[in-house]
Amino acid sequence: MPRLPRISPIGVPQHIIQRGNNRQACFTSEQDFTAYTGWLKDYSTKFQVEVHAWVFMTNHVHLLCTPLQPRAISQMMQSLGRQYVRYFNVTYKRTGTLWEGRFKSCLVQTEDYLLQLYRYIELNPVRANMVNDPAHYKWSSYQINALGKKSKLCTPHQTYLSIDRQTKSRQAAYRDLFKHQLDTKVIDDIRQATNKGSVIGSEQFKDEIEKITGMSIKPKKIGRPYKTRN
């Protein structure tokens, strides 16, 4: 079956996930995380992709990004993936693939879902029972967005900046968003949209994406069309 073309309009945020093949570990040391972070910064700059949020787990990564030019996300992820696999194979004296096929992604409606994606991504280590507080996990963007840690990788999205004009107040309000876990339905919606390479947002947003791209993203009705009898 041929691969479906990716939907990647300029200026529309995307949630990206890439897993290790058979869910094997992709990061086994501090050096691995550091190397991946550095190359993500390099290739996001090269291909003009803004990175707003991320988490690097032991066997997969989540990113929230906005492309500023055509095919920017694909170019960034392909270059990053190849560079990191070469590093990983040389470092650990192995051969073969590391990633589980193509990365998965979905478009994100800014107004209703962008901050939900921030939370979904940065709460990953909590849902995985690795930490009790997202602030305690080093390899995510939470310390930047919530606590003000400096980062050359992170580009704040305008929706994040609009939480409050004052930096300290904005960070405090952002931390308040994490006092409760995400609703289960929101988590399921994010996962389904990402796995299908679709869109998370309202019907109006989906209509807008279809008009922009000329591609159908809504599920088709199953079965043959009903015919009336003469």
How would you describe what is shown here?
The longest helix has 20 residues, at 72-91. It is built from 9 helices and 5 strands. The chain has 230 residues and is of the alpha+beta class. The protein has a 5-stranded mixed β-sheet, sandwiched between helices. The N and C termini lie far apart (39 Å). The protein has one domain (14-181): Alpha-Beta Plaits. Helix content is 43%, strand content 13%.
> Radius of gyration, Cα only, in angstroms?
19 Å
Largest sheet: 5 strands, mixed
Number of strands: 5
End-to-end distance, in Å?
39 Å
What proportion strand? 5-15%
CATH topology: Alpha-Beta Plaits
- What is the N-to-C order of secondary-structure elements (H for helix, E for strand)? EHEEHEHHHHHHEH
- For the record, the CATH architecture stands as 2-Layer Sandwich
Point out poorly predicted stretches.
none
Relevant terms:
alpha+beta, Alpha-Beta Plaits, 43% helix, 5-stranded mixed sheet, 230 residues
How would you briefly describe this protein structure?
The chain has a single domain, classed as Alpha-Beta Plaits (2-Layer Sandwich).
Question: Which helices and strands, and how do they pair?
Answer:
Blueprint: E1 14-19, H1 30-46, E2 49-56, E3 60-67, H2 72-91, E4 104-108, H3 110-122, H4 124-127, H5 142-147, H6 158-161, H7 167-176, H8 184-196, E5 199-200, H9 203-213
Parallel strand pairs: 4-5
Antiparallel strand pairs: 1-3, 1-4, 2-3
Helix pairs in contact: 1-2
